[in-house]
Amino acid sequence: MTNRAWRVVIVDDEPLARQTLRLLLTRESDFLLAGESTHAKDAIEAIETVRPDVVFLDVQMPELDGFAVVPHLDTAVRPLVVFVTAFERHALQAFEAQAFDYLLKPFTDERFADVLRRLRGRLREREHSRASPSPARTLLVRDGTRTIVVPHDDIVWIEAEDYCARIHLRDRTVLVRESLRSLVNELSGAGFVRVHRSAIARLSAIRAMEPLSSGDQRLTLTNGTKLRVSRTYRTALVKALSGGG
Q1: What's the CATH code, domain 6-131?
Q2: Do domains 6-131 and 138-241 have the same CATH topology?
Q3: What is the pTM for the complete model shown?
């Protein structure tokens, strides 16, 4: 159980929408309304000042939409973003922006309570991981007669190369005698996702995802690499980016 209230910022240009969220939040002792904004520019400044744990963010607002706020979020301690909108068509874009949830107006008290329940779970997980950091996870791979220890955090992406796999690290690449399929199995549940039949990416190394005219998606990674996401793997990728929920 946390010993403080989690800070919340509401961003919505509609007074009634802000009032509804405000009233619902006042019933919850473990959530503190720390700020309200009526447009994206003001929201960016408020979020930088307040450093909230959660942001309830409208999509359609004057001048800039809610998606314009997302690139300005602190990546080191990123707040959980719940998009709140009357338009279902923005759902895919919201989860591509790594939204925690997508609250469709008008919503019921029960639906809002479910969002808060899930937020509590994720926020407690974060606090627990900060209080008790787990040891760095590693990948053991064969390179001829040698066994190489590769920290997960050093891996950006992995590609199939003939009957081997090339692991792209932050500062170098390593060619190992492992199949991509075996690496997919070994890295399952460790923050990696298959984006193509011949490529795996570390989720935290993904910086952007954009649609292509073919119906596929294209990722940009932290090292500048561009990877195509085939339609076969897109749904699983979006789910993984949104936290699996």
Answers
A1: 3.40.50.2300
A2: no
A3: 0.56
Distance CA 80, CA 223 (A): 25
Of 191, 172, 189, 182, nearest in space to 140 by CA: 182
Q: Map out the domains of the chain as residue ranges.
A: 6-131, 138-241
Q: Classify domain 138-241 by CATH architecture.
A: Beta Barrel (2.40)
pLDDT in tens, the chain (245 residues): 445 789 999 999 999 999 999 999 999 999 999 999 998 888 898 888 888 999 999 988 888 888 888 888 876 678 999 999 888 877 777 777 788 888 898 999 999 999 999 999 999 988 877 765 556 688 887 766 777 788 888 899 999 988 888 999 988 888 888 888 888 888 877 888 889 889 999 988 888 888 877 777 888 888 888 998 888 888 888 777 766 54
